[in-house]
Design brief:
Strand content: 25-35%
Order of helices and strands: EEHEH
Low-confidence stretches: none
Largest sheet: 3 strands, antiparallel
Shape: flat
Number of strands: 3
Distance between the termini: 29 Å
Number of helices: 2
Helix content: 40-55%
């Protein structure tokens, strides 16, 4: 399982494996937002769609 993580609105989202996610982030803290969960390919698709929507292409 992979996670798309948004730390803040200033930075692009990160794609992390669940092991890395749990090492670096505490799910109970509100310092980040999980935008999407899925396979690595699904996460990349989500990020590329999100980027296209934001840039208007």
């Amino acid at each position: 399982m992979y996670y798309v993580i948004l730390d803040s609105d200033k930075y692009p989202p990160s794609i992390l494996h669940e092991d890395q996610y749990f090492q670096w982030y505490n799910p109970m803290k509100g310092d980040h937002r999980v935008e999407f969960r899925g396979t690595m390919n699904q996460c990349y698709d989500f990020v590329s769609r999100r980027n296209r929507l934001q840039t208007g292409h």
